[in-house]
């Protein structure tokens, strides 16, 4: 169990640029979640996948945001035409629905700064 | 709909003192409740969880929490604070295998 990993850990970009983040979940986990955390706030749900299917998207996820999990393993989150309001920590979590623990394991996050 | 209220943004205790971090929730379905801890520039680590079994839940690092349905509360306690407990603590509510709704978090400071 190597844990959830995210890449990059930090990203600085200029307003209007596109950025893409990657999340590698724990290998046997079938669910993958994306959350966003702004300074002084708790994480807010963005979207989640079960295997390769995207099952729910938050209203926070504007049209500029898109997420994929093409083979049911790693996932990418892309933000197009970034805005300063997109500056936040983007957290990925994974879980396994076959047991009874219901625990989500979080990665270290990608901190995005839009200048 | 689900929500979490964590009153106060900052709690300061002396080393060795009792830690009490409050969490109240609202949920239209039987809740699953979690406490996570976050150290600076890191992700979230699960401290403990309530998933409809025992109402008094013990977690890592000496923390425990009690689920009180009548009070819609899930307060986190630790009998004796340690300097290493200084961090941000988040309470979260969810259903079985569903998204989590987090509170705003409480920053715990521990004075020597």
List the helices and strands and how they pair.
The complex is a heterodimer of chains A (115) and B (112).
Chain A: E1 5-7, E2 10-13, E3 19-24, E4 31-37, E5 44-50, E6 53-57, E7 65-68, E8 75-79, E9 88-95, E10 105-106, E11 110-114
Parallel strand pairs in A: 2-11
Antiparallel strand pairs in A: 1-3, 3-8, 4-5, 4-9, 5-6, 7-8, 9-10, 9-11
Chain B: E1 2-5, E2 10-14, E3 19-21, E4 24-27, E5 32-38, E6 44-50, E7 56-58, E8 64-68, E9 73-78, E10 87-94, E11 100-102, E12 106-111
Parallel strand pairs in B: 2-12
Antiparallel strand pairs in B: 1-4, 3-9, 5-6, 5-10, 7-8, 8-9, 10-11, 10-12
Note down, in words, how this protein is organized.
The complex is a heterodimer of chains A (115) and B (112). Chain A has 115 residues and is mainly β. In chain A, 0% of the residues lie in helices and 49% in strands. In chain A, a hairpin with a 6-residue loop joins β4 and β5. Chain B is built from no helices and twelve strands. In chain B, β8 and β9 (73-78) form a beta hairpin.
Mean pLDDT of chain A: 93
Number of strands of chain A: 11
Q: What structural category arises from helix and sheet content of chain B?
A: mainly beta
Oligomer: heterodimer
Please indicate the percent range of residues of chain B in DSSP E strands (runs of 2 or more).
Answer: over 45%
> Number of helix segments of chain A?
0
Q: Overall 3D geometry of chain B?
A: globular
Overall 3D shape of chain A: globular
Mean pLDDT of chain B: 93
Number of helical elements of chain B: 0
**N- to C-terminal separation of chain A?**
36 Å
Distance from first to last alpha carbon of chain B? 41 Å
Q: Compute the number of strand runs of chain B.
A: 12
Unreliable sequence segments of chain A? none
- Give the % helix of chain A: under 10%
The string of secondary-structure elements of chain A, in order, is: EEEEEEEEEEE
The class by helix and strand makeup of chain A works out as: mainly beta
Radius of gyration of chain A: 14 Å
Q: Radius of gyration of chain B over alpha carbons?
A: 13 Å
Largest sheet of chain B: 6 strands, mixed
């Amino acid at each position: 169990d190597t844990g959830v990993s995210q890449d990059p850990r930090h990203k600085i970009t200029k307003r209007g640029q596109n950025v893409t983040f990657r999340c590698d979940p724990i290998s046997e986990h079938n669910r993958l979640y994306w959350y966003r955390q702004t300074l002084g706030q708790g994480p807010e749900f963005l979207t989640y996948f079960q295997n390769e299917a995207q099952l729910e998207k938050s209203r926070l996820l504007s049209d500029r945001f898109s997420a994929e999990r093409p083979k049911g393993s790693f996932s990418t989150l892309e933000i197009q035409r970034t805005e300063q309001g997109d500056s936040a920590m983007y957290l990925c979590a994974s879980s396994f629905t076959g047991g009874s623990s219901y625990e989500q394991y979080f990665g270290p996050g990608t901190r995005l700064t839009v200048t | 709909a689900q929500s979490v209220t964590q009153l106060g943004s900052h709690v300061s205790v002396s080393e060795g003192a009792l830690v009490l971090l409050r969490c109240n929730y609202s949920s239209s379905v039987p809740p699953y409740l979690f406490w996570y801890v976050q150290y600076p520039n890191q992700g979230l680590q699960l401290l403990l969880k309530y998933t409809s079994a025992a109402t008094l839940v013990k977690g890592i690092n000496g923390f425990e929490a009690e689920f009180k349905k009548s009070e819609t509360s899930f307060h986190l306690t630790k009998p004796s604070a340690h300097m290493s407990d200084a961090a941000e603590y988040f309470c979260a509510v969810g259903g079985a295998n569903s998204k989590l709704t987090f509170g705003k978090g409480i920053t715990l400071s521990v004075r020597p």
